[in-house]
Structures are given as C-alpha cells and as structure tokens.
Amino acid sequence: MVSFLLAFDTGWSGHPEARVTKRTEERRMTMPTMDRGVLAPENEDRRKQLIELLKKAYWMEMETVMSYTANSVNPDGVRAQEVIEDLEEDIQEELGHAQEFAQRIKELWGTVPGSMEFEAEQSYLQPPEESTDIVHVIKGVIEAERGAIDFYNEIIDFTDGLDYVTQDMVIAILRDEEGHLRLFEGFLREFEAEGTA
Ligand SMILES: [Fe+2]
Ligand SMILES: [Fe+2]
C-alpha cells in the first residue's frame, strides 16, 4: 500500500489538484475494461434489458407480498388455518425475493423503482365474496406461483451466457416458487378429492 501511494506521489507536480488529476488518469489507464459478462461495454443493451426484467420480477414479488398478506388475514373457518399459516411463511420468503431482485438491479447499475411506478396485475388474488372460500385463495396462489415460475424461467434463459450471477440467484428463487406451488397444489387436491373445489 505504501509503495502504491509513493508511486503516485513521485509524479506530483506540486499543486493539490494536479495530484488528483494525475491519480485519476493513472487509475483509468491501469483499469482494464471488462470484455466478458453482463458488465462489459459490449453487453450494455442486454444489461439494460435485464434490468427491466428484474424490475418486473421485483414488482411481482411486491404484489405477492400484498396479496398474501391480505389472504393470510381475511379467511375464516377451520379449513383456512393451515393455508393461513403457510401464507404467513411465504410472505417472508417473497419479501426476501423482492430484496434480492432489488439488490441485483443496483449491482447492474440500475435504480430500484419507486412505488409510483407500481401497476397491479393479480386480479385473481382479490378477496373472495365469502371469507370461508379458501379454495378461491388456493387457486389464486397457484396462479401467482405459476406466473412467477414462467417468468423466472424466462429470466434464466435470458441470462444464459450473459450473467451467471443473476441466473444463479433466479434459479434459487425459482426453486422456492416451485416449492410454494407444490404445497398449494396439495391443498387443492384435498378439496378436489372431496368434490368441494
Ligand atoms: Fe417469490
Ligand atoms: Fe412464491
């Protein structure tokens, strides 16, 4: 570290600003540009496209947090309790996903959008007319999870050969969503077996 600083100091012309300018120039000269990966200049267009995909994923997770919060409180009845407990757990996981997407947007030199950009899409997860209609909630969750699974597979395809860090992150998130889907498919199966779904 000492020798690093001395190397710069030998070229100091005397004026403090001259030293800053020289250091900046030397740093630019010694910093190689990246040729590979999503941060490489030649991949700028695809990086920007990826940021847009990540923003959409971020909003999907945020809306899911809202929908699952409402649907973990509204239902009544003995049958609803297991669903409520699982939704409560999922809310924390979905929030964690949203935070991961936000962090990755920033790492890719993007900006996490503000709430004014939010547009709701989950019409199928609105409160049912009857608060005991837990099948409505289960079907809504299945639709949300299937939508996430489709879209995350799209991001995984998009990042292939471009951004393995995002790909790795989304693969892990995809596994969580597949787990959520499987659980709620199991709930639905029970109601279908009884003929009440
Ligand atoms: Fe999620
Ligand atoms: Fe999920």
SSE layout and pairings?
Elements: H1 2-9, H2 16-30, H3 44-71, H4 80-107, H5 134-159, H6 164-194
Describe this structure in words.
The protein is an all-alpha fold. It has two domains: 31 residues, no CATH class; 157 residues, Up-down Bundle (Ferritin). Helix content is 69%, strand content 0%. Helix 3 runs antiparallel to helix 4, helix 3 packs antiparallel against helix 5 and helix 4 packs antiparallel against helix 6. The N terminus is likely disordered. Bound molecules: fe (ii) ion (FE2) (2 copies). One fe (ii) ion binds next to helix 4 and helix 6. The site of one fe (ii) ion has 6 residues, from helix 4, helix 5 and helix 6.
Features of this protein?
mainly alpha, Ferritin, 2 domains, 6 helices, disordered N terminus, binds fe (ii) ion
Poorly predicted tracts of residues: 1-14
CATH class of the largest domain: Mainly Alpha
**Rg, Å, rounded:** 24 Å
Question: Strand-and-helix sequence, N→C?
Answer: HHHHHH
- Biggest sheet, open or closed, and with what strands and sense? none
What distance separates the N and C termini?
Answer: 69 Å
Share of helix among residues?
Answer: 55-70%
Number of strands: 0
CATH architecture of the largest domain: Up-down Bundle
